[in-house]
Amino acid sequence: MTVLIVDDSRIMRLKLKSLVGATGLPVGEILEAGHGGEAMTLLSERSVDAIFTDINMPVMDGRELIRQMHEKQVAANAVKVVCTTEDLAGLKEDLVRYGITLYIEKPFDPEAVKRVLMHVGKTAA
């Protein structure tokens, strides 16, 4: 499976990349983007199975990325996961209409990352 990690923090991208690699699941390529604009460019060129995105980012934040992916039908079959430190109560209501159903709170729990990727494997089968 191919995974895209979208976060403006290089350290957070490296941390999540490390956790994805440590799951022991069959992950092929792990792509990275520093904001939603970079992610949209990557998604126009590549197919991905899972997207982990932060919400608070410069240029194009996670909310706008998710909205644009939904409206443009980009990565429509990918599992989309919001990774944030924000209060998820208000955020979930705003994003569920765009197909977001999985959330991981920062700091990352390795088991939560593994559960997400196991979910991806089930939907791809």
Rg is 13 Å
* Second CATH tier, the architecture: 3-Layer(aba) Sandwich
* Order of strands across the main sheet: 2-1-3-4-5
What distance separates the N and C termini? 11 Å
Mean pLDDT: 86
Q: Tell me the helix content.
A: 40-55%
The CATH homologous superfamily is termed Response regulator
Number of helices: 5
Overall number of structural domains = 1
CATH fold node name: Rossmann fold
Compressed to H and E, one letter per element, the order equals: EHEHEHEHEH
Number of strands: 5
User: Low-confidence runs (pLDDT<50, min 5 residues)?
Assistant: none
Outline the biggest β-sheet: 5 strands, parallel
The coarse overall form would be: globular
The chain-level structural class is alpha/beta
Strand content: 15-25%
The CATH class turns out to be: Alpha Beta
Commentary on this structure:
- The protein is an alpha/beta fold and 125 residues long.
- The chain has a single domain, classed as Rossmann fold (3-Layer(aba) Sandwich), CATH 3.40.50.2300.
- Helix content is 45%, strand content 18%.
- The protein has five helices and five strands.
- A five-stranded parallel β-sheet has the order 2-1-3-4-5.
- α3 (62-72) links the parallel β3 and β4 (79-84).
- α2 runs parallel beside α3 (62-72).
- It is globular.
- The mean pLDDT is 86.
Question: What are the key terms here?
Answer:
five-stranded parallel beta sheet, globular, 125 residues, 5 helices, alpha/beta, single chain, Rossmann fold, 5 strands
In summary, what is this structure?
By secondary structure, the protein is of the alpha/beta class. The protein has helices spanning 10-21, 36-45, 62-72, 88-95, 110-124; strands spanning 3-6, 30-33, 50-53, 79-84, 102-105.
